[in-house]
Amino acid sequence: MPAVPSPPWFVRARVKTRQLMLLIAIEEHGNIHRAAESLNMSQPAASKLLKDLEDLIGVQLFERLPRGMRATWYGESLIRHARIALASLGEAGAEIEALRAGHAGNVSVGAISGPAMTLLPPVLAALNREHPDLRVSVSIESSDVLLEQLAQNRIDLMIGRLFPRHDKRNLHYEAISEEEVCAICRPGHPMLADGTPSLADLAALPWVLPPEGSVLRHRFELMFQNAGLEVPRRVIATAALVLVPRLLEDGDHLAVVPVDVARHYARHGAVRILPVDLSCGMDSFGFITRTDWLLSPGARTVLAALKSAAADIYPAPRPSRPAAGRRRREPADA
Question: CA-based Rg of the chain, rounded to a whole angstrom?
Fold first, then answer.
């Protein structure tokens, strides 16, 4: 007769949802009194819940200090998984409520600016036609911000980059394409009448650039330094791409932006693309999801639509390699 499998530890320990909520509240408030108040329970009841859990698991989850409580390594581990478990239950409730309201679910997608301009619009339009009850929200940020949002379950999936500094545990990355950049200016800019400008010509002009510390700003400046030139000194720094065309209108500033963004603005007559090749391109971007989190049916539908459209829009990414003169240690993503 086959052996009966042992039930999971949390079943044997009879772990309650309220105990998981209490662990998180103690970590956030630093003592059990305020944690109990936040959960609308008495301190003795909270103390008993915590003691019961510690006794059942057989380890101490918090150090009792003179002025509060601090999670032990055991406690930190359990609190991290408690957050994931409670967030998953919250997502389940939201999905059920959406289905009861006649919706196919809520999906949050994060993207960096280039694919946000080119990939997302046709996919979202198609999803709206084919799945009118599926509600999709979009967040446009840097990869660093999006990765933080993904870790906090604020977005379901993202389109962005992973650099060596990023913690790739529990992440799945599927490359889409490299991201080229170009220089843009206002229509009628004097530089448009001079043929192909040299790098020295570009160094003498004012620029609208990403903020200091971003990857694109770092590589843009290296492009001039590697050519023995001073980096442009007259600079307006902004991460708000929606502001760039307006900043170019009233002067002779140039701007460096992803090609996808430049083509979008050029189609609407807001900017012109300068006929010059810039060697400060960005690395490949791709789809990033969490391996420790199950995508909802709606999120899987969105991801499948994005992958299908990406295969038609983008060429296959080339193997990534450091560009000439490019440092391996990169600053924050732009």
Answer: 26
Tell me, rounded to whole angstroms, the distance of Cα 152 from its chain centroid: 10
> pTM for the complete prediction?
0.65
In a domain, 323, yes or no: no
Which tokens hold the place of 224? 């001039």
**What CATH number is associated with residue 215?**
3.40.190.10
Is residue 316's pLDDT more than 70?
no
Over residues 77-127, the pLDDT tens digits come to: 899 888 888 887 877 777 677 666 545 678 999 999 889 989 999 999 999
Full residue range of the structural domain in which residue 171 is found: 104-177+283-313
Measured from the Cβ of residue 212, the count of other Cβ atoms closer than 10 Å reads 12
Give the pLDDT band (50/70/90) at residue 254.
Answer: very high
C-alpha–C-alpha distance, residues 155 and 167, integer Å: 17
Sign, CA dihedral 177-183-187-191, equals negative
Residue 13 structure tokens: 């320990």
